[in-house]
Amino acid sequence: MELLAPAGSWEAFIAAIENGADAVYLGGQDYSARKSAANFTLPEIGRAVEYAHLHRRKVLVTVNTLIDKSEFRAALEFTAELYRLNVDAVIVQDLGLMAAVRRLMPALPVHASTQMTVHNLAGVELLRDQGIKRIVLAREMSLTEIEKISRELKDAELEIFVHGAMCYSFSGQCLFSSVVGGRSGNRGRCAQPCRLPYQLLSEEASPGHAQGYLLSPADLCLIDMLPELAAAGVHSLKIEGRMKRPEYVAVVTRAYREILDLDVSDDEAMREDARKRLLRVFNRNFSTGYLEPEQKGFLSTLRPNNRGVYLGRVVGQDNSLKTRIKLADNLHRGDGLEIWVVRGKSPAFVVNQIILDGRSVDEAYAGQIVELEANGRAVAGDRVFKTHDEELIAEAISSIKENLHNRIAIDAGVVLSEGEPLALSLKDERGNRVVVTGHTPAQTAAKHPLDVNNLRDKLGRLGNTAFWLRDLTLDSQGELMIPFSELNELRRQGIDELINLNLNAYSRPPLDDNLLRADLDKYISNHNKKPKKAVFPLTIPRLSVVVSGAAEVYAAVKGGADRVYLALEAIGRKRLRSGEWAALTDCAGKHGCRLIPLLPRIQMPGEENDWDDLLQPIPAVFMAANLGALKWCRDRRLRVRTDYSLNVFNPYSREFLLEQGVEGVCLSPELSWTQLENLGDLSHCEIVVHGEIIMMVSRYCMLKGVLGSGEETCPRFCRQKRYGIKDGKGYQFPVETDEYCRFYAFNSRTMCMMSELDRIVKLGAESIRIEARRSGEQQVASWVGLYRRALDDMARGGKPDLAECEKQLLAVSSSPFSKYHYHRGVLDK
User: Fold this and answer.
1) Distance of alpha carbon 423 from alpha carbon 416, whole angstroms
2) How far is the C-alpha of 460 from the C-alpha of 488, rounded, in Å?
């Protein structure tokens, strides 16, 4: 299996390579999902590629954000530069960029980012059919599910995260940072709201049941499951951490490299040492994430940052803050400590002096009592944690040196003949061979002829190159010499030629700049359909609504919806019953409304056939909310539309889906007015204008994790009452679960664009949507009815009082209104 390490800086890149990574993933200055990392300029990427390739390692570059229309050409030109630099692959999220790179640069391998939320066999197959070489699976997959995909599909590489930070939400499906703070995770600016404290509320008048970091997962650590991952068919093991320090990258990469290189007979003590180093460098507690069904210790609710390693307990403290601690682990001067206190701020400090038995020492050991000077109050019994291990970090720093390991051995041969230039041959351990010849004829030496010793001294000066001189032979006819300056130049020339030979193995067919420019012009022109000219009276868009239950379907149909999507995941205690579909379809048809099943955005392997019995007769049209569901529909020759969970952010993604046979596309709710107006032809597009938007969907139910007592069987807290979470500013976010016990967080504000409905109509979208997944039938009826009347009034040439309509909508809404991103857009700079 490949070990893939992160790099957010040059130092982290060297740390990864020199500590055993087979490949490194890094980002450029733009289009990267970790914009807060230092990241790499194009020349730095080129330097990294050369360094990696000389060491027989790979460099993967992330271009893994959603691409705005105005950026698309520049993103493709940036990708073309990566092609020219011979990067080994690009990692992408945007469907439009994926399709364009495959079309315009087919020789460049493309990997599907975990931001694509691929979590089932059909999703992997769809991307495989598009020529995607590797799929980074969603972190939420179990070992059994990964194994099933690998067994069914042999011609696509599977990559999974094995270590580091976990997202609470499925990657690519989180709008929390975007909606609340305007910083989009899909655009590389996640503000990590899941790491903030929340209070759990219920519909009762009592205060919250729990509080703390309720959405903060523990860190993933799969170092003990590497044999199982190999057996499951995983190709690449990915370490998270492009925002982490180089020392972290060094320690984690080295630990996984050592365990990968062990065989089953090796000493367990070596494995335990690697585990301890991982804990010492950074941890929020460790869990195996979703790989095992129990999901034990998944949340880290006490603190969202590094908790360190337990060091001991406070024995006592005097008035000058001199603190006595009984050690449970070793302590070194320079370590960073934190004392967990019950009240007040926990003291955190660097150990500058250790007093043991009245004398100053550099280190102390488990079982000893030491005196340290803290910077805050603590009492006897308080726990002490080591958050910085100076010894470990010093070892890591010593490993971050270029060409420290894995240099390429070369053998040199020198031929000297009087009156002839020196001939130098260099052959590396990989079989590459070059011969370079000087210009100055060799002549008899007066004092110091060239011999093996001084040749080795001159030719062995390989400095910071990737080579070292192993064997040297000299074939000399007499005591001859040439100028040392020429010998040095021959060495440099020979090494340069060897470097080129080594790098040639990674080269690909050159890009024709003129042809690429013409292809880019044509591609962009063909995928930018111009909007249809406005015709008066304006064409009124269809009115669509998403609901979760049968009663809400009837309410939406009778309220005047043109299209009703029944969300099959059954959010909020609602579930379609056997035989109910036919009656719902019949009612919709009698009212001139089309009823469409909306497949869940999350469909784990095996769940895709859950609807065969419920959906009778089989509907003609489905809405797909993930790539696997799209392929499921296509394989059955069903008509299909796509939900906003596919993150269509530009016309190229829209056109890609339309080329796949999709009838209609719901656009990303992160688009602003300006972006919507510049998107081109929206005649196959739907835009969300009202309702409660899903901000997070998680496979882990926080309610069970926080309220449960550890029992395996969940008492179904979600069926007993309704819950929400409250942040530090007092905003309350409703939470729900579905039929599969998946967890959803909704915004504290309801989107409402009624006051600007006339402007929305002028966009020319095929339909507008109301999101009512949480709503009851009365609210659905009111919302749909008010939008229906306003649209009908417009269709007749009237001018409805939109402000009054909005006031009436607010009267039946459960939260205040917001216009989301229509005016502010998302921050990504």
Assistant:
1) 7
2) 10
CA distance 108 to 116: 19
Whole-number pLDDT of residue 791: 97
Q: Give the pLDDT confidence score for residue 720 in this predicted structure.
A: 84
Residues 6+ apart with CB under 8 A from 456: 469, 472
- DSSP string for residues in 273-339: HHHHHHHHH--S-EE-TTSSTT-TT-B--S-SS---EEEEEEEEE-TT-EEEEEESS-EETT-EEEE
- SS3 state of residue 60: strand
Prior bond of 441 cis (ω within 30°): no
Pick from 114, 157, 154: nearest CA to 134: 157
3-class state of residue 80 by DSSP? helix
Determine the 3-state secondary structure of 646 from DSSP: helix
126 vs 132: CA distance, rounded Å: 9
pLDDT digit string (tens) for 645-657? 999 999 999 999 9
DSSP type of residue 183: B
In the block, residue with structure tokens 């009237």: 798
Q: Which parts of the chain sit beneath pLDDT 50?
A: 205
Distance CA 175, CA 115 (A): 12
Residue 261: count of CB within 10 angstroms of its CB:
10
CATH number of 539-692+750-815: 3.20.20.70
Only one residue has tokens 């409905």, namely 757
In the chain, the amino acid numbered 255 is: A
b (16+ CB within 10 A) / e for 364-379? beeebebbbebebbbe
Taking the C-alpha atoms of residue 128 and residue 205, their distance in angstroms, rounded to an integer, is: 52
Task: Classify domain 309-399 at the CATH class level.
Answer: mainly beta
384 residue type, one letter: V
* Residue 535: predicted pLDDT: 60
Distance (Å, whole) CA 485 – CA 493: 12
pLDDT (tens digit per residue) in 260-314: 998 766 678 888 999 999 999 999 999 999 999 888 889 998 888 898 999 999 9
The DSSP output letter for 397 is H
Q: Which amino acid is at 156?
A: A
For domain 2-166+217-287, give the CATH number: 3.20.20.70
Burial bucket for residue 360 (CB in 10 Å: 0-12, 13-18, 19+): exposed
**How many CB atoms lie under 10 A from the CB of residue 203?**
10
* Partners of 473 in the β-ladder: 413
Cα–Cα distance, 518 to 224 (Å, whole number):
52
Token pair listed for 709? 């007592």
Q: Which residues pair with 290 in a beta bridge?
A: none
pTM for the model stands at: 0.94
pLDDT for position 537: 64
The span from the CA of 385 to the CA of 378, in Å, is 13
Whats the size of the chain, residue-wise? 829
Give me the helices (H) in 130-245, please: 143-152, 176-181, 226-231
Domain segments of the chain as ranges: 2-166+217-287, 173-211+694-705+717-749, 309-399, 408-504, 539-692+750-815
Calculate the alpha carbon distances from 783 to 129, 258, 507, 563, 778 in Å. Answer: 42, 60, 59, 14, 9
* Phi, psi (deg, nearest 5) at residue 788: -60, -45
Q: Which of 803, 686, 813 is nearest to 746 (CA)?
A: 813
Q: Which residue has the tokens 């299909």?
A: 640
Return d(Cα 671, Cα 114) in angstroms, integer. Answer: 22
User: Minimal CA–CA distance to 591: which of 618, 553, 620, 623?
Assistant: 553
Per-residue tokens: 113: 């980012």
Asked whether the domain spanning 539-692+750-815 has the same topology as the one spanning 2-166+217-287, the reply is yes
Contact between residue 646 and residue 629 where contact means Cβ atoms under 8 Å apart: no
User: Which of 337, 430, 436 lies closest to 382, judged by CA?
Assistant: 337
Torsion of CA 510, 512, 518, 519, to 10 degrees: -20
